[in-house]
């Protein structure tokens, strides 16, 4: 683990505040305290959102709006702004904004944090809270013509709906000419090989240059939050996380839910299980980054043969290991609250030696990728200095993961907000300063090597683990009923970035509100910043370097 | 041929006799290929044109490159090394529906995507075949209860083969595709047994409450799909 130097030369470091100091700082803005398990919470009036957020951002250093979660209670609506610091994500604070039941209007936080834009649109779409001063309050996940707000309390799940097919806008009709410009409208997707699934990009082109690009999402909105809210904590929720980020990143996602729910129900995970979790999760990260590399090379080089096949081949190897471990190739369902479902496969020696074989040949393969891809001149021309995302912009949009680290921001929850066994192991957080498409790819490739390091250390540990201390699960009651009205927000470092879960319990065995903070959702939001003014092929490169997965964007 | 060095053979009966004779007496084996042995005494393979075409179709299928959800990851593995669907003559993904014969539907279909999928399907030239991959295309799979999820792809387009699983392993998908090829070669595929949702013009919809609520938002000529989640199987 690399530690921050103690005498940081940063002059304007903002000191940490205790909750009481924060309350004093906010003064009259605070109506009441509503603490969550992870953070102090301050209740404020719905028309003081911008003021509160900007005080917290400017004066207290909470520069990361991680999530906006909205929900409806019997007597009110509520939006919660979960704030963190990029320097130290264990410093958290929640801003709770109740809104009137009959007229749920609340001020938008978009002016302070750009990322609030999409989060609030989603809250409007699914829950029905309206945000004043929002630049563009429309539905985001559901079709424009949808009736009602499906996560509000009185929504009838069976009511009929109509979805329109707005004819793909006719480019000739929209062709706009005047003295300065000559623009054309171009649809990319939702069925398109370069959009990595069902994403729809509405682009306006001036010649070959992009004037504007808008992502239209929601083509894979599978009601993940509703599904989680109708499942019991103990067993019924765990299969779903596998399907958020389905690029084999299942265990990383399961960990997000496990971490939040274990904190909520106060469950200790045995160390042995933590090591297995860490190992499995890093295998998933390798598989996920391999696919990112494969599809990126496909997008940029149009190379369906070499790089793609090589990367898929490496994925097959990891997937074989994961299949040995969990029993499934893709949808693992391997974590349980309080541990994992079963121990390593027998004979253990065989599993270890297979894993070691994989780790041994990985450096050679990575060398090969560097020869094939990163040192390829054409590839470099396409990716270096294209899709620039400056660090401040990335932070403002709440980008995380390789996207943020490719912009030189040193932020990785595995180290900064440790969980699992990461803080006992020796590995580094990778950052690159290029801020371009190339850096993001380099970050991913080096992260694969770091993951391999972690797996190697886990294998060593597991090999020597005394036989009578191999507890794979803590003692967890058959039915979990966390206390009424407990709220928690917890995040882990998934393949694409910070994957967080907000849960509110209501005393039953099912969550009353389950909100997913998807890293891809925030990362995708940065696309216009990277693409506007660039050429159209660079949009494709930028999109590929973001490595989005629509299952997680739309949930 | 005789030794008289005729430039043309004018007597047709002679040719027939000669050919047959030479075959029967074993003088020339020009026509006695393996294939001939398999097909009997005539030098021509007699088959129905339909049958022949079906065989061609089944032996060379162009897939639509079409990814929706989690199942598409396994679908990519099916195309790529190790599983290599190309071994069975059906591994060339086409990015344009106009060039594709088969659509593998790999994932969950939600209300916003269904009209698009219908449209892509309509753009494929006849004859076209559909393989449904995964539980989601059968019934909505794990998301069946979702307010936004279409309960099976068959609600939208006709399907030929269902491959169950969540996700099906690549081997299962290979099996499904090969089964489809078999059916196509036997001329059994694609009876349209369901009445799928149609894209209708909004103006043609029955004037119920929902339609009334949307009249000022949707153009009369706009193509729409109407979902009745309660009545879905
Ligand atoms: S069947 Fe399972 S794996 Fe396939 S798309 Fe549906 S949820 Fe994903």
Description:
Chain A: InterPro entries: NADH_Q_OxRdtase_suD, NADH_quin_OxRdtase_su_C/D-like, NADH_UbQ_OxRdtase_30kDa_su, NADH_UbQ_OxRdtase_CS, NDH1_su_D/H, NiFe-Hase_large. Chain A: It catalyses: a quinone + NADH + 5 H(+)(in) = a quinol + NAD(+) + 4 H(+)(out). Chain A: In the C-terminal section; belongs to the complex I 49 kDa subunit family. Chain A: This is NADH dehydrogenase subunit C /NADH dehydrogenase subunit D. The complex is a heterodimer of chains A (555) and B (233). Chain A is an alpha+beta fold. Chain A contains 18 helices and 17 strands. In chain A, the strands form 5 sheets. In chain A, strands 1-2-5-4-3 form a 5-stranded mixed beta sheet. In chain A, strand 13 (335-336) and strand 14 form a beta hairpin. In chain A, helix 6 runs antiparallel to helix 7 (271-301) and helix 9 (348-374) runs antiparallel to helix 14 (437-463). Residues 1-11 of chain A have low confidence and may be disordered. Chain B folds into 2 domains: 51-185, Rossmann fold (3-Layer(aba) Sandwich), CATH 3.40.50.12280; 200-231, no CATH class. In chain B, helix 6 links the parallel strand 4 (129-133) and strand 5. The model of chain B has no long low-confidence stretch (mean pLDDT 77). Chains A and B meet through strand 8 and helix 8 of A and helix 4, helix 5, helix 8 and strand 7 of B. The complex binds iron/sulfur cluster. Iron/sulfur cluster binds at residues 69-71, 107-108, 134-136, 141-142, 166-167 of chain B.
